[in-house]
Design goal:
Blueprint lengths: L17 H25 L13 H20 L7 H7 L8 H22 L8 H30 L19 H16 L3 H29 L1 H8 L10
């Protein structure tokens, strides 16, 4: 998760450090490992057709997620040059505990893949129409995330961001476009994998992200003051006209 803050405002502008750069490689490895775990949860080990549940919907979801992860890592590579930049990029400055809870809920998401591959807790949720809708929504969520990350990367790399928050691209519409994409992605996950677990996990994910939004706005107001208030008055947090 990310905060649109200028890197020059952190700790006097740290010099790049090798250990932080190494974290990018570790993050990439962990992203790939997670995708393999998700795939392993779908495979019906020992069955006559072990790959039966790695169907068009499951494979499509994992492929889109893989491409989104690659773009996120590439766009965030500058943030891994220092601890302060990385913490701002992932939103740890406003809420240090966020990483722990995100990791726990991501592990919880593996139950969704187990449900689709093995348990089938609510078979009535499964159907091509709803699953296709979910895959389309997930593609939209990842495209929105990529668009957001592209503008955040420019913000972190540029020299014109010292005096104001990011207000271009998707930030013209909502103040927290990446969190909006995350929530849409969780709805898509439940639809694609026709999973009761997915719908149950949507509640803690929503509460976590709403809490993160509130904490981040407090942090941004400390940085930008009245400029952020003016920006907040003309944009929604997550959904235009709703919230």
């Amino acid at each position: 998760m990310k905060s649109p803050i200028a890197p020059s405002s952190f700790e006097g502008g740290e010099a790049p450090r090798a250990p932080e750069s190494n974290r990018l490689g570790l993050t990439a490895v962990l992203s790939v490992v997670y995708l393999f775990l998700a795939l392993a949860c779908l495979v019906q080990w020992g069955a006559a057709h072990p790959w039966a549940r790695v169907d068009l919907f499951a494979a499509g979801y994992l492929a889109i997620r893989f491409l989104g992860s690659i773009h996120s890592l590439i766009s965030s590579r500058r943030a891994f040059q220092s601890t302060s930049l990385r913490r701002e990029w992932w939103g740890q400055t406003s809420n240090p505990a966020i990483v722990k809870w995100v990791i726990l809920l991501m592990l919880g998401d593996l139950l969704v893949f187990l449900d689709y591959g093995h348990w089938h807790l609510m078979p009535s949720l499964e159907g091509p129409a709803l699953q296709s809708l979910g895959l389309g929504l997930y593609l939209l969520a990842v495209a929105w995330q990529i668009w957001t990350d592209s503008y955040l990367a420019r913000h972190f790399n540029g020299d014109d961001f010292r005096e104001a928050p990011t207000i271009v691209g998707p930030f013209r519409t909502v103040r927290h476009p990446r969190y909006a994409a995350a929530l849409l992605g969780k709805i898509a996950l439940a639809l694609v994998f026709a999973s009761l677990m997915g719908w149950l996990l949507l509640l803690p994910w929503t509460l976590l992200l709403l809490n993160k939004v509130r904490a981040e706005e407090v942090h941004l107001r400390k940085i930008f003051g009245s400029r952020y208030d003016a920006y907040a008055q003309r944009t929604a947090r997550l959904v235009p006209g709703v919230y």
